[in-house]
Design brief:
The complex is a heterodimer. By secondary structure, chain A is mainly α. Chain B has one domain: Rossmann fold, CATH 3.40.50. Chain B is built from six helices and nine strands, in the order βββαβββαααβαβαβ. Chain B is globular, with a radius of gyration of 16 Å. The chains are: A mainly alpha, B alpha/beta. At the A-B interface, helix 8 and helix 9 of A face strand 6 and helix 2 of B.
Chain lengths: 518, 214
């Protein structure tokens, strides 16, 4: 079943995209300067965003993952928050926080991208850093290395592959950014993703869009391939020990500073967003919140925004559908990892959407199923299907380690006690599977609630999701639009963070149960 | 190795913020071993870390010959450390692990490698220079760790339970080798262990060998 889903909704759309590229005018499109210029601009923007994310994220990774201090787990969870926030929410939050000072453009976009990707750096680099035995640095010091030399010659070689890997992911996310560049960018921050959307929805030039998407896929593929090579050079990666350091003396001050900076950096945009949702030129107001539930406040004039309340209902429905589909498809895909080489190859295939941008996926799906003879857009199915595809790799990533950690000998024990084959399997893997499906479903719901790129292509004009309504509101002048958008964004923040926190707690509890059981 | 100056520890108070125990004083002559024996948690490793400069002393002094190293940072003390685990650098092969110390002292790469090969011969691992450290057995890794510490030409060698991760026959053989190497290097050595038998092995019948119980 997952295989059918993947073929129908991933491979066929990609094939439709490929068919669109191969045509009589392809060469002309390929030699057109525009997509290459945009690729160049996006590469510069992504490189600066990556450098900034690393500059901020590396000290956080060092302190939050390696040092023992009160509230460490909370600080680490907090550093993950930006990653689970929808991109339109972050764009709006940065406009609320820095829009008055920086306006729209390069600076605010790279700041927002660095913010969104802090968790990528903290989690990936931190996971490696915490496995480096600090005594190897001590040994280097006893052998004559000063602090910097010990870092350069011992810590850095061990961290380099993880840093390269994190940098590649941040680069790809920033290079393929859509929501942020549309909402707070300008001509200097255009991305191919935004170009594809424009070529599809404004210019209706599908072949040009497909060529742009292909150029983007080429860059993304090359960067991810480079990252995979870097990862392959990891040494001493088998370490399963974690070395937590108790801060003493001067390092205690540094730990305090970095932990405080994390708190400020993560919370400032979110608080600015909350503030914007209750503030007007006349002072404190709840008008924007009541506007969420009214029909007149923001729908006046000729611009068609759609009812916020209807959009929220629609987003929740899409999220539930996405959660169900992704949990089933992703859970089954994760199970197939346990079944041998073909299963593992299949599970690897489910990770494909990770390397394919939302616009590429959206455009491919639109070409395959969004126009005659087969137009599924009216059914409202395309958005949750695309969201499920985006969420499945995450579901597999969450589910596979938990399923792998279940003890297969329990299946044998159950069978030896007379359980049928299916009963024995369920005895061995059932409890882990149950936890995983709920967690994965919740995660997929969160992804769907905030997803902007694919929904831009696939949602019907009269049926926008919450992120689309926020984007439309921000495209309109006036403080009412901004205020209501901020209120909607706050709702989205609460919904996504609650879901992710619940998934996290559920996962922890599941792990504890597993530990006791085995 | 240097010209073999004695290590003198005078009224040394160890601890993190507050003293772990009463002040300690002792001296170790070049080529001889002081074995420090005591149960886990009595401060043996903290004492070594304080002498090596990894942990600051609360008071007292550490001198090597006429050189007072008490306030010097760890990288300037010239005190070699070998830990319970080999703690080899995973991104370097065996030879480059041993050449690490000479390289930090400004020796060029080829000479540092020659020096590493010389030390690897000392510890009977001359043929393993090109090996990845992942291919070493526990005993071999510990020998490489010893060679690495000696290649940096330390004035003092500190051994923090270096054999405790090894099995009994290997432990006895390595103890003999370490004693021979210390005698050859003519530097003072401190050997920390929780095993009184091991302490006796490291000091028994050796000129200047003594045991400090903690």
């Amino acid at each position: 079943m997952p295989a059918i889903f993947l073929v129908a909704f991933l491979l066929i759309p990609l094939a439709s995209l490929a068919a669109q590229i191969i045509g009589p005018g392809t060469a002309g499109y390929l030699f057109d300067a525009l997509p290459w210029q945009v690729a160049g601009l996006a590469a510069v923007q992504a490189a600066v965003s990556t450098a900034l994310a690393l500059t901020l994220g590396l000290p956080m990774a060092n302190v939050l993952t390696r040092y023992r201090f009160p509230g460490r787990r909370w600080a680490l969870a907090l550093a993950t928050v930006p990653f689970v926030l929808p991109t339109v929410v972050v764009a709006l939050a940065f406009r609320a926080l820095l829009g008055g000072t920086l306006g729209s453009g390069f600076m605010i976009v790279v700041l927002a991208h660095a913010y969104l990707n802090l968790a990528v750096v903290v989690r990936i680099v931190g996971a490696r850093w915490v496995t480096i035995d600090p005594r190897t640095v001590t040994v280097a010091r006893t052998l004559g290395a000063d602090t910097w030399t010990a870092f350069r010659t011992v810590t850095w070689p061990a961290l380099r592959p993880a840093i390269a890997s994190a940098a590649a992911i941040v680069f790809v996310f920033s290079f393929t950014s859509l929501g942020v560049v549309l909402l707070i960018g300008d001509a200097s921050t255009r991305t191919l993703e935004a170009l594809v959307l424009r070529q599809t929805s404004v210019l209706l030039d599908f072949q040009a869009a497909a060529v742009s998407a292909a150029i983007q896929a080429l860059v993304v593929g090359s960067v991810l391939l480079w990252a995979a090579r870097q990862r392959a050079s990891t040494v001493g990666g088998a370490a399963r020990d974690f070395f937590l350091i108790r801060a003493r003396g001067g390092s205690r001050l540094a730990v305090g500073l970095v932990a405080t900076a994390t708190l400020v950096i993560v919370l400032a945009p979110v608080l600015a967003l909350v503030w914007a949702s209750v503030r007007s030129s006349g002072g404190f107001t709840l008008a924007w919140w009541s506007g969420l539930f009214g029909s007149n406040t923001i729908d006046a004039g000729s611009t068609r925004i759609g009812s916020p309340l209807a959009a929220m209902g629609r987003s929740v429905a899409f999220a539930l559908a996405t959660g169900a589909v992704a949990a089933i498809v992703g859970g089954l895909a994760a199970m197939s990892i346990l079944t041998g080489r073909i299963g593992r190859a299949f599970a690897l295939a489910t990770a494909l959407p990770l390397g394919i941008s939302a616009a590429t996926l959206g455009l491919g799906t639109l070409l395959a199923y969004g126009r005659p003879p087969l137009d599924l857009r009216a059914t409202g199915l395309l958005v949750p299907i695309a969201h499920a595809l985006i969420a499945v790799p995450l579901v597999v990533a969450v589910a596979a380690p938990t399923l792998r950690s279940a003890d297969p000998r329990l299946v044998t024990v159950a069978a030896s006690l007379g359980a049928s084959r299916s009963r024995a399997w369920w005895t061995g893997y059932g409890p882990a599977m149950r936890t995983v499906m709920v967690a994965a479903g919740g995660l997929a719901c969160a992804v769907s609630l905030g997803e902007f790129g694919a929904a831009s292509f696939l949602a019907r004009a009269d049926g926008p999701t919450v992120p689309l309504v926020i984007a439309r509101l921000l495209g309109r002048p006036g403080e009412a639009s901004f205020g209501v958008a901020a209120a909607m964004a706050v709702v989205l923040v609460i919904m996504t963070t609650t879901l992710v926190a619940a998934v996290d707690r559920g996962g922890d509890r599941g792990g504890d149960r597993g530990g006791t059981r085995v | 190795m240097s010209d073999g100056a004695p290590l003198q520890v005078t009224d040394l108070v160890i601890g993190y913020g507050s003293p772990l125990r009463e002040p300690l004083s002792f001296s170790v002559q070049p080529g001889s071993v002081l074995a420090i024996v005591g149960p886990s948690g009595c401060g043996k490793s903290t004492l070594l870390a304080t002498i090596a400069g990894i942990t600051p002393a609360l008071s007292g002094s550490v001198t090597i010959g006429d050189r007072n190293v008490t306030s010097l940072p760890v990288n300037e003390r010239k005190i070699g450390m070998v830990f319970q685990e080999a703690l080899l650098f995973p991104h370097l092969n065996v030879r480059d692990n041993v050449a690490y110390g000479p390289r930090r002292q400004g020796v060029d790469r080829s000479h540092a490698r020659e020096e590493a090969d010389r030390l690897l011969t000392w510890v009977d691992l001359a043929s393993l220079g090109d090996r990845s450290i992942e291919e070493l057995s526990g005993g071999q890794a510990q020998r490489v760790s010893l060679a690495r510490a000696l290649a940096a030409k330390p004035d003092v060698l500190c051994l923090d339970e270096p054999f405790s991760a090894l099995d009994a026959p290997l432990r006895a053989r390595l103890a003999e080798d370490v004693l021979a190497i210390i005698a050859r290097a003519q530097i003072p050595a401190i050997h920390v262990t929780h095993d009184p038998n091991e302490a006796r092995t490291m000091t028994h019948g050796r000129a200047g060998g003594s045991i400090l119980s903690m």
